[in-house]
Design brief:
12 helices; alpha/beta; four-stranded mixed sheet; single chain
């Protein structure tokens, strides 16, 4: 037969004696009762005493959660301006409470940043170094991708067609509605704005030329690439970053699989197929939007719109836009994969690199578009 000492009921009460408040705690301040203890701490109302005597003689047992709630209770009382004195705290529990207090995180303070020439030079230098590292990482993965692609060409059975089809379904087919809708709206806006100004000079008819050439050469592929970078590029980075956090990529390398062949190549191939097709859908949607607005706003009927469009456009105009699409897709895929591989073991790092992936991809897409514009202008196309 075993005899157990009686356990005090769980309680946190207060008794006032003039300017002094006597707070008495009792019971088991353990994890099992943490919710009840926290409710008592939150509900305790001591007014605004000058001094608080915190009597802990009734506490039968305490663990880390109880020590943490006791620390919260002391902080609450001190925040009211009271001078807190702890009484009857056993030596063992005192060490536990001291340990909790020593591990209390420091209060958050806003980071003060002094703007100066030194800070500006340091920040610029860090950004340049980071850009250089990114360039090296992209060239590294591009070189590995070329080697893997050469191996796949020699051994076509190594290409993972199911993975390519899966990525194409997500990056290509899944993006059709949003790309079509956005290009439709942009085409209509270009027609309305162009018509608003050209009508003042009696040149309404040239709205068709403006919409057709601008959409097929620049806007269609550029908007589509930006949408793909924001939608699919960020998804690639998040997927690879999550795999990196869970050490799945390390596991692939341990079992002898080439990460570039398994993870990067299917995504890049899918994007390089999907982006030109999305561009075609986007171009058609933008022309339909421009045609509708021209009909409603400028009284240019669809038949005349198509006739003027046929006169304004050439095959070269269409090819100029479509030629850029695979290169933009390659850039988006490489940047997304590089940022995904740079993720470290925290959700904060995952979010940061996903954001950087979108920003860098859009920036590089615009740079590539500018380079192509200069190239085509140089060869007279």
């Amino acid at each position: 037969m075993t005899a157990h000492a009686p356990v005090n009921p769980l309680d946190l009460s207060v008794r006032h004696d003039g300017d002094v408040a006597h707070v008495t705690a009792s019971g088991l301040w353990l994890l099992d009762n943490a919710r009840d203890v926290e409710a008592m701490v939150n509900a305790l109302d001591v007014g605004r005493p000058g001094k608080v005597l915190l009597d802990l003689s009734g506490i039968d047992a305490m663990d880390t959660s109880g020590a943490w709630l006791l620390h919260r209770l002391q902080a609450k009382l001190e925040f009211l301006g009271a001078r807190v004195t702890v009484e009857n705290l056993s030596e063992d529990y005192g060490e536990l409470v001291s340990g909790v207090e020593s591990h209390h995180p420091p209060p958050w303070t806003p980071r003060k940043r002094k703007i100066s020439l030194v800070w500006l030079a340091e920040t610029t230098g860090r950004q340049i170094v980071e850009i250089g590292r990114d360039a090296v990482a992209v060239m590294n993965i591009l070189g590995t991708l070329v080697m893997v692609l050469a191996n796949v060409v020699r051994h076509p059975s190594r290409i993972r067609l199911i993975s390519v089809a899966h990525q194409f379904d997500r990056a290509g087919i899944g993006a059709v509605p949003i790309v079509v809708l956005m290009c439709f709206l942009i085409g209509g806006i270009i027609a309305q704005q162009g018509g608003f100004y050209l009508r003042q000079f009696g040149a309404d008819r040239y709205v068709v030329d403006l919409v057709g050439v601008l959409v097929l050469r620049e806007i269609g592929v550029l908007l589509t690439a930006i949408m793909v970078a924001g939608r699919s590029g960020s998804a690639f980075t998040a997927e690879l970053g999550s795999m990196k956090m869970h050490e799945e990529i390390d596991a692939l390398q341990v079992i002898g699989m080439r990460v570039t062949e398994v993870l990067v190549l299917p995504r890049v191939i899918a994007l390089m197929i999907a982006l030109p097709m999305l561009t075609i859908f986007g171009n058609i949607a933008a022309l339909i939007g421009g045609g509708l607005v021209s009909w409603v706003y400028l009284d240019i009927p669809p038949f005349s719109f198509m006739l003027f469009l046929k006169e304004a456009l050439t095959v070269e105009t269409l090819l100029v836009g479509l030629t850029k699409a695979p290169f933009m897709a390659l850039i988006i895929g490489l940047v997304a994969c590089v940022e995904g591989f740079k993720v470290r073991g925290s959700s904060e790092s995952l979010g940061l690199h996903t954001t950087l992936s979108v920003v860098k991809s859009i920036f590089m897409v615009i740079v590539v578009d500018g380079l192509f514009a200069m190239y085509f202008a140089g060869i007279g196309v």
